[in-house]
Amino acid sequence: MRITDVRATTVTVPLQAPLRHSNGAHWGRFVRTLVEVETDNGLVGLGEMGGGGESAEAAVRALRDYLVGHDPARTEALRFMLANPTASLYNNRTQLLAAIEFACLDLQGQHLGVPVHDLLGGRVRDRVEFASYLFFRYPSADGDGEVRTAEQLVEHASRLRRAHGFRVHKVKGGVFSPDYELECYRALAEAFPGDRFRYDPNGALSVEEAVRFARGIEDLPNDFIEDPTFGLNGLRRVREKTSLAIATNTVVVNFEQLAANVRDPAVDVILLDTTFWGGIRPCVKAAGVCETFQLSVAVHSSGELGVQLASMLHMGAVVPNLSFAADAHYHHLVDDVIDGGKLTYVDGAIEVPSGPGLGVRLDGDKVAEYAELYRELGGYPYDRDPGRPGWYPLLPNADFADPTVPGSTWNEARL
Predict the structure, then answer these.
(1) Which of 87-101, 183-197, 347-361 has the lowest mean pLDDT?
(2) Which of 55, 160, 206, 312 is the S-S candidate for 396 at Cβ 3.0 to 4.6 Å?
(3) In the prediction, which pLDDT does 413 show?
């Protein structure tokens, strides 16, 4: 089996409402680049990647000459073919490598008639539990869906809990002042006794503010506090001053950083992202290192459609030391580009695909629909806030949004 072609298609799929975060916002939609790798036996493997609200089509297509003629079973060689660590100082291709790796594993599984998790050692669980990834949100184009107050946050979580069965709740913070978000977080915990909680301000807080926030929630049933400040040294200082477990998906995203954290611990929970780490296989390897040194792991989300969600599910299926519910933005989507529509949550979990390869295929009509929507709307700056023109955050941030200001209703052209 040899690769004969590599194709890329950018799509934009609407969200229920624009999602706010400490660095800006998802402006009412996700922009994702779908990758198709074709082989000489007629199989097509699927990959997917983001790009901060922008297309990665040109970058994927530029890899065609590297890949044509390559055996997709040689996935270890891809690491050096596409993302040589020295060459990558000039053209960091880690996320591109991940999308190609998904497709190559998909091809191998289809060729052999087995799911990807069988290629990775076989599943140890049939379902992966997820948390209700909660964002402060602007209202959608029709004026619905705003999450700005503690009451709105609790109501939003309650609807998701009823619809999908979530029993773990993650608050994406760093939007409003830490004191305000502390009130919202505690209101959420009070509303759902018996559930578990986690907080993630994307590194926006100073060390001192992060310590103060952590101490303000130590009495609650927390899983962890994620990236309360930025950098391993900052996280280490917070860790020394709180009883909470510290998690990260920003400063331990490769093996050098993982080694540094093992040698001088700053983080207790490593959030493995199949894109940020360069594929499913590196995440499984990293989970093995974490198992050896008794670090916990969880599955991180970087804003997925169904193809990347499948990669997350296969990874979550084979990692024995998966200690926490996974993250996913998936429930915020109004649609998907895979056959059969969106995968379904049951009791807060999604079943691991059992079909050959990744176990998902593209719906051609949906891809065409959302590719056309991308051509109509274009990209958006993920690191800007549409409600705060000219604003950008510093690290640590002190210029937080005002929670007393109602969100604007954004027309379809801006979403």
Answers:
(1) 87-101
(2) 206
(3) 38
Q: How far is it between the farthest Cα atoms of the chain?
A: 60
Q: How many CA atoms lie within 13 A of 212 on its CB side?
A: 11
Pairing type for strands 19-21 and 24-26 reads: antiparallel
Please say whether the beta carbons of 131 and 198 come within 8 A. Answer: yes
Greater confidence (407 vs 290) lies with 290
**Which residues are identified as catalytic?**
172, 300
Q: CB-side exposure of 22: number of CA atoms within 13 Å? A: 23
Predicted structure pTM score: 0.97
Q: Which of 350, 348, 349 is closest to 160 using CA atoms?
A: 348
Q: Report DSSP letters for 78-145, one per residue.
A: HHHHHH-TTGGGTS--HHHHHHHHHHHHHHHHHHHT-BHHHHTT--S-SEEEB-EEEEEE---TTS--
Give the distance, in angstroms, between the CA of residue 52 and the centroid of all CA atoms in the same chain. Answer: 12
Positive or negative, the CA dihedral 400, 326, 187, 145 is positive
Q: Minimal CA–CA distance to 26: which of 180, 157, 133, 186?
A: 133
Query: Distance between terminal CA atoms of the chain?
Result: 42
Residues 357, 45: contact at Cβ < 8 Å? yes
Segments making up each domain of the chain, as ranges: 3-118+364-377, 122-351
Q: Is 172 helix (H, G, I), strand (E, B) or coil?
A: strand
pLDDT at 145 exceeding the cut of 50: yes
Q: Do residues 67 and 100 make contact, with C-beta atoms less than 8 angstroms apart?
A: yes
CATH T-level fold of 3-118+364-377 = Enolase-like; domain 1 (3.30.390)
Encoded amino acid at 80, one letter: F
**Gap between the Cα atoms of 199 and 281, Å rounded:** 28
Backbone dihedral region for residue 26 (phi beyond 0: left; psi -120 to 50: alpha; all else: beta) = beta
Residue 407 has what pLDDT? 84
In this structure, whether the domain defined by 122-351 belongs to CATH 3.40.50.300 is answered with no
Q: Could you read off the pLDDT of 217-239 as tens digits, one per residue?
A: 999 999 999 999 999 999 999 99
**CB–CB of 12/29 below 8 Å?**
yes
Average pLDDT value for residue range 304-326 = 98
Which of the four pLDDT bands, split at 50, 70 and 90, describes residue 291?
Answer: very high
Averaged pLDDT score across all residues of the chain: 96
